[in-house]
Batch of 2 targets.
Target 1
Amino acid sequence: MISKLKKTVIYWLLLAPLVIVILFPFAVMFVTAVRPREELFVYPPRWTFSQFRWDNFVDMWVKTNFGGALLNSLYVSVSATVLALLFSIPAAYALSRYRFPGKGLYRNFLLMTQMMSPIVLVLGLFRLMVAFGLVNNLNSLVITYAAFNMAFTIWMLQSYFNTIPRELEEAAWMDGASHYFSLVKIFLPLAVPAMVVTAIFTFINSWNEFVLALTMIRSNDDFTLPVMIFSQVAGRYQIEWHHVMAATVLATVPVAIVFSWLQRYLIRGMALGAVK
Amino acid sequence: MMFQKWKALAFSAIAAGLLGAAAPVQAQTQVNFTVAEYSSKTGPYFEEVAAAFEKQNPDIHINLQVVPWDTLLQRLTTDIAGGTAPDISIIGTRWLLDFAGQGIAEPVDAYLTPEFKSTFIDTFMAPSVIDGKIMGLPVAASARAMMVNMDLFDKAGVKPPTNWDEFYAAAKKLAAVPDTFAFGLQGKEIETDAYYYYSLWTHGGDILKADGTSGLDTPEALEAVKLYKTMIDEGLTQPSPTNYTREDVFNMFKQGKLGMIFTFPMLIPQIKAEAPDLHYQILPFPEGKAKATYGVTDTLMVFSSSKVKDAAWKFIEFAYKDEWRSKFDHGEGFLPVTKNVAAEPYYTTDPDIAGFAAGLPYAKFAPTIANWEEIADTTVRTMQQIYLGQVAPEEALKGAAAEINKIRGL
Amino acid sequence: MKSALRSTPLLMIVPSLLLAMFIIGYPIIDLAWTSLQEVSRFGQLRGFNGWDNFAEVFSDPLFYGSLWRTVIWTVAVVGGTLLLSLPIALILNDEFYGRGLARVIIMLPWAISLTMTAVVWRWGLNGRAGLLNATLMDLHLIAEPVEWLATAPMAFATEILIGILVSIPFTTTIFLGGLSSMPQDAYEASMVDGAKRWDQLRYLTLPLMRPFINIAIVLNVIYVFNSLPIIWVMTEGGPANGTDILVTYLYKLAFRFGQLGKASAISLIMFGVLLVFTIIYVVMVMRAEDDGGAAGEASK
């Protein structure tokens, strides 16, 4: 047996190249975000700078309406997640617990919906939202994100539901409990870990989605974070890189923190849902 | 304010989101205005104009949609396809023919009073005239020029060039200065073709021949690109131009690493903020068989589908008042499109601006032809192939000309 | 009562079915409809033109170039991701000091949107103003700045590497999930039998991981095949269309050149390619696995 210490050294050495490559963009982001504007284009480029310009963050916040974009992103991501779960839980439950005609067809349909990239469908989606009068409305994003994530959430939830022993519910029915009661009081509490995992997936995907948000959202007040940051870069005659990077840092850090806190649940969720 | 809007959104989420509730009743006339974002000042500027206008005209509300330049055409395409086109929009004048040809742009002759019309500089008005009708108003303009780093020229002991022979000779001398490059050549993404047109025009060539076919298969066009290719091969440009966008080249110039670049007036405020110690000078493009500069304008267009053209026009007239135009041109660093602003002391005495404005009498504009973006893309691809040495210049240009003629249906 | 029970599962799937039909099904039909019509520069339909759009696509040399690069892109990114993610997951599944930190770092790329990642990389990779070259030169690994995105082969390779980097977190998470669900007793039994670690990996871990690897392949292929931001932000398919894949070419056609009919046709072709891939894959791999699973059930 190799000692834990020896393993630690070997493993970190093996991971080192990857860790460096992963951290590189974060480091670039950070040192660009906090340096004074005059030092953006020094030659040769340096990691160091003369002083920390925390004001960059304040300036950026005011100039780019960062707070508004943050709230918009939160609203869209949370609502899309809730909506996706509301639609997925019953569907996953049905797939896991019942045999019914068209079950295979339904599963194939879900897989097919995974195959379409929003980019490919953007024109059709846009026409659809126009018909619903939802253009320039954050709710158009909520619905679309929920729909595009549903296949994955249903699949995840279903594989997890499969691992919850049927006997538990059956026992409750024996005791005279209604199906509804057993579902709410016995089944769903057991399924909470899987719901957390799928919620995180949906949340992250919605938080980072870009193309649809760019197409559907018209006014600056309704921009989500990725669109807001992109609009600082795309085709301007003058790109204020320190502000772009400051915004990127601020948009990333909260997600990264939540992630590091929840990642063990993520893995556990993946593990419990035997993939089928 | 923000929070309230957000809360209201949340409350309406289920109802509006799932059922698609109708918009609330509007008493005001709503004018939708799509604005191209030139810099971080663009949005706030137009908000200010709109607010001032609404104060005078409480019955009209201007809905601004500020769109990044790179996605403007996509936005307008989806809008038109989806039937939600705005009432007015800023567009690149090079797209105007496509809009006019599809019946999307509304001619403005009927709205344009003679007094209003006389405020514009004719050079900038000309590209918006299609088949004798004015299809839009110039809203932003720039001309291009050469910018040189005087410190490097002093070090190399040469004078800034006035023609291509001197340009090439100066580049040879500048190349001897260590750790710098003589000429910044753009080879990536937007306006890579423009960098070539500067050379094409001054060598006496043109984008289209008199008969409307592509001018890329002419001897002048070949000479123009061969000059660039020679300079790349001899190390007179920065290495690998195909890795350098317009912005990258300008950034290198700010770093003091380039002797000569071709640029636009909007770079000046950036240099003042980011590289205040740089000693630069604005000069006309080197001359060959002809003098030329590239005039670029953007157009304010009225959509023929608009139901509130009168209100929209009222806003346009308001926004073209001298005080607003002046503020816009100063803020973004554009050349004025109206005579009164152009007469301001700043635009007549400032040497930088004068350097750019000097070329206007002989400025060339991108031809107003259909499918311009695709033609430009073909030119960009051809330039990249030549710069990379994938295809010989003569063969590449012939192929490009044939392809462009095909796109034009000739 | 009985019939009510039978309709219960249908009622449960109806909401999700309706949502998917509306948001995804309708645009697909709209797309198919559009692809058979002449479409104006701004997306207005101008009447049927049969298969002209498809004919135009199939006579376009750029289409074939993009198709070929899409294959390279997808195979390279998905293959590279799987090859890296499996050992990473094995390492992260083992006990060592700082494992929690290592897991967090490996997952980090997931926390930024692809667009932003690409923007930051483009800025860092810049030939002369980028920090990557500056750092490599400081370390004396290179003497001259490398122009990462100047030529198509180099740019494409760089984009593939970044593609792999951002796909690792998701894939590793799936694998870690798989590894932590391995039956411990099987491992203990094999230890007793004196199996070497390598044999253990080959004969025990990998077979047990198969369903997880399969799902990782299917999902990654779908995501990577359709992925726009990395290539679009870094090179826009250039130089000289040398890094164009189908989705970037499609985007250019639709939103820059306004050839919406042709773009719709390419969308449908892309959908078809993915559909064929998935069907073949599901039939070949998943069925084999189902048989194995059934055999396992029976022997219980």
Target 2
Amino acid sequence: MSNLLAFLYRFRGVLVFVLLEVFSLYLYITSNAYHRAAFFNSANAYAGQVLERRMQVLDYFSLADQNRRLLAENTLLRQQLAPPDTAGREADSVALPPLPGDSLRRIRYRRTAARPRPDTLLLARRPLPARNPAYPLVPARVVSQTNANVDNYLTLNVGIADGVEPGLGIVAAGGVVGRIKAVTAHYATATTLLHSKTTVSAKLRRDGTVGSLRWPGDDPTHALLDYIPRQNRLARGDTVVTSGYNAIFPDGLFIGIVDGFRKEADKNFWTVRVRLGVDFNRLTHVYVVRMPNKAERDTVEARAGLKPTPEEVAP
Amino acid sequence: MKNLGQVVIQLVRYVLYAGVYVGLVSRLVLFEAGWCFLYLGFLLFLPLATPIVVQLLLAFGLGLTMDIFFDTNGLHAAAAVLLAFVRPWVLKLLTPRDGYDAQDSANIHQMGGQWFAVYLGLLVLVHHTAFFVLELGSFRHFGFTLTKILASFVFTSVALLIVQLLFFSQRQGRG
């Protein structure tokens, strides 16, 4: 027994080292598992507070830049609000032909039913309902983010209290940003498009070909669009939008534009480089989107055997 | 009593290094390739006589703190624990002819520039190699990873050298 203790004591350094190293690597390797305790990430309440305080200080240094961009966005929104005089104008009543038996041949007018239009916000070049209680759009502030790592994350200052759940999509004015990964009461962490495990189902808006967008891990302004068949004709400047094939993003949200493409000798698909619409280096205000009937859609896909579990990350 | 004082000093150093790193230094990324792992200063400049188990636990704790802030889930911890494990061996490799004195610390004024350069260089290189290779999880973009390792190596080393020259006095090391 004392020999054993002496042995353990002699090699205590190696033993503790192996123990801690294996534990860290276990945490690291299993970190992409979908459901994880929210403690070991920055959605943790204490880390969230520290990062939020840091953001409050650092905000002062980028105020001019932020104001300039908000101004640009406002201009865009105002242009949306004030369309040219003739565009989108609807008559409040329509003229109907005279009744067959009317000898005076009077033209009749009928009021069109007033269609209440929901408030919308123009995000990722698509109007999304802003106040729909069934699937609210949650505005959030980026508290902390990384851009230059291989796997990049955001921390947002919204949480369960604001109706945010793991798996919801995030968009900004410029385009698709990422997905919520973990939430606590008041904070959420999200994987951005710049993450090796993130894939987004995307399509070319011109012809509707669906592919899968992923980030190869080097350049934060570009991503790759896979699975576009070689017989497709491509053009630089084609718009890439979300396909709506999974229950994360609505159909047609802007992702980026095609910047270049080439044939690989041994593949049946184009390798398409996409310039992302979101500038991840200066991301401050984002919105969490929720798809209507997401749970029901997940359930039916799980029942059909398309998804192993309802929360599985679908490409 | 002396031990208690030592513990308090190390706690203050822990908070300082972690706080400065999270609040300020982690935002400084040179050309998307060079990070400054300033918090390694806490581990590198611990007293030379610190027991190995304590060093490993401190490294794990510090690494995990960073992991919580930067959502890396054990990446910082794994690299830091490796650093703490290698440190005694580097110290043994660099033992002066007449051994270390009881009050010796990793201080550029006490141990000399050459000793310090090798000590700092070796350990930072080990840490950065482990960190960036683990982060990638493969050898795909090897050239880019190598650039990251070298750029961060230079950045971290220069920053820690500045910390030494600014905060470590001729007689006793704290910082």
